[in-house]
Amino acid sequence: MLYVLGELSDKSILFNLFRYQSFRTGGAILTALAFVFMFGPAIIATLKVKQGKGQPIREDGPASHLITKKGTPTMGGLMILSGFLFSTLLWANLSNIYVLAVTAVTLGFGAIGFWDDYLKVTKQSHKGFSGKQRLALEFIISGIAVLVMVWMNRGAHPTAVAFPLFKDFFVDLGWFFIVFGSFVIVSFGNAVNLTDGLDGLAIVPVMIAAATFAAIAYLTGRVDYSAYLGINHVPGAGELSVVLGAVVGAGLGFLWFNAPPAAIFMGDTGSLALGGLLGSVSVAVKHEIVLGIVGGLFVLEAMSVIIQVASFKLTGKRVFRMAPIHHHFEQLGWKEPQVVIRFWIIAVVLALIGLSTLKLR
Length: 361
Prior knowledge:
Layout: H1 21-51, H2 65-68, H3 77-91, H4 97-123, H5 131-152, E1 160-162, E2 170-172, H6 177-195, H7 203-221, H8 223-229, H9 240-258, H10 267-284, H11 288-294, H12 296-315, H13 325-331, H14 336-356
Antiparallel strand pairs: 1-2
Helix pairs in contact: 1-3, 1-9, 3-4, 3-9, 3-10, 4-5, 4-10, 5-6, 5-10, 6-10, 6-12, 7-9, 7-10, 7-14, 10-11, 11-12, 11-14
């Protein structure tokens, strides 16, 4: 909305600021943060009344959770998505196809997560709606988004996968890229969803990944910087830095209420949406493999579940004391703040490694 003020730059030098993505990214961060601060308490109070007993706690999980987390409302993703959407509508260029595609994936995945949370809360059960139906909807949403992004991509390699550390090395998948891109989005959406199990554990790594990809999107969208770094130039992708700025701001606001002891949980409403957002951004800027590095913590969490399930089905034995892996460390005696902060540190290190791949080519 405010982006159009940049067209009035000939009227006043102040309007010229709205042409710069860096300025609007900063505005998006502050706007989303202020929005969540203002409306967060009311959202929490409403959810407490509506949900009563709050999010059902796993009985097979750490025993302390049955005491410390019982009665805490979920669906806190509504706070994040509200702040994100308001800020994006205010600061981003709404005619940009990447902004529209990523926002659509985010809201679509958020709606799926909301319905799943709703079923869990009303039934007081960990079972939402059918996993197959959920995955089918996620693949439909992500498939349409990837198709649109490929169709509108004016870069040199719209259906290719770029490999970090290698300059000008691409593997063109053709139209199979639609399947690949959808897999990235759906996988990352569910990986973030699995990570959301402790107070503050998921939201900070999400913000770290979002900030990292805001930089990548900005550089990818600039023909001069992308040429200097030897990365694929995607015209228009730089506008995603504004969208990711809104994620960082909304995430900071949510963390205020989610910091231990959490007043509200993110729920599938937030975790699925944020994971889908990061996945779709990586597809848009052609850095899918780099997302696996930057978001390596989420990959580790998802792999721990896959390994645990596969091992138990094949051998009858468990590799971890409990999966996802953050619960494994709790069972080893780590306190919740220790697990959370140490995982944050890992997320920072992985983000730095991911950023370094932009230059090491």
